[in-house]
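Service request form, structural biology core

Requester: graduate student, group of Dr. S.
Request type: structure prediction, single chain
Budget code: on file
Notes: please return the result as structure tokens.

Sequence provided:
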Amino acid sequence: MNTPSRFTLEASGLTAHYGPVEALHSTDLHVDEGELVAVLGPNGAGKSTLLRRIVGLVEGKGTVTFDGSPLPRSDPRGCTMRGVVLVPEGRGIFGSMTVFENLDLGSYLATDKAEIKTRFDRVLISSRGSRTGKNSLAGRSPAVSNRCWQSGVA
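Core staff response, request fulfilled:
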């Protein structure tokens, strides 16, 4: 007999407002353990707002649970402490800092030094083939793509 799978991340009835404009309309999202999910839509459809709402950067109604427990509302730090983070697009990095400094900043909650080194190495290996290294400025690095950043936090 199959037991129902537990959702690793579940968002239910999420709304978000920017001033009087409702940008997210009662949205649900379920991500099973080990599952990859893509949120697709045209510009302005609410994809980024949904992700910002999940991590507490945008206020609204609805609930978000992670591993069966509610995520703190309007508390991005609390979400990060629970292991739920929003990976920035290339525009969200600190371009005047090096690749290493950006990665180091993103690992401030990690305590396992060996795991941090493994993740840093994974990003640098992902960028192999370019002339970018950990001391290159992140804002000028073609190798600092979303894929590299995501592999660093995955």
